[in-house]
C-alpha cells in the first residue's frame, strides 16, 4: 500500500473502569521503571525506544490507531481466515 506505515508499539493496559487512582499509580510506576538504566537497555536491545505518555494520550492513540487500521482492513478486504 502506498504511503502505509506501521510501527510496533507496546502499552500497559488496565481493565475498563479501573479506578483513576490505580491508573495514576500504574502510570507513575511505569514512568519510573522506564527511567532506569536496566529497563532502558533491555528495550533498546530489542530495538524499542522506551517512552511513556499520559493515560489519556495512550487512550487517544489506541482509538486513532484502531480507526486507521480498520480503514485499511476494510479498504483491502482483509479477513481473518
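^ C-alpha cells above, recovered residues below v
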Amino acid at each position: 500500500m502506498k504511503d502505509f506505515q506501521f510501527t510496533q508499539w507496546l502499552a500497559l493496559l488496565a481493565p475498563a473502569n479501573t479506578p483513576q487512582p490505580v491508573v495514576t499509580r500504574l502510570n507513575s510506576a511505569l514512568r519510573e521503571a522506564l527511567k532506569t538504566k536496566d529497563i532502558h537497555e533491555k528495550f533498546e536491545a530489542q530495538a524499542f525506544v522506551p517512552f511513556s505518555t499520559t493515560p489519556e494520550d495512550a487512550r487517544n492513540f489506541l482509538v486513532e490507531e484502531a480507526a486507521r487500521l480498520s480503514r485499511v482492513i476494510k479498504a483491502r478486504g482483509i479477513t481473518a481466515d
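The chain has a mean pLDDT of 91.
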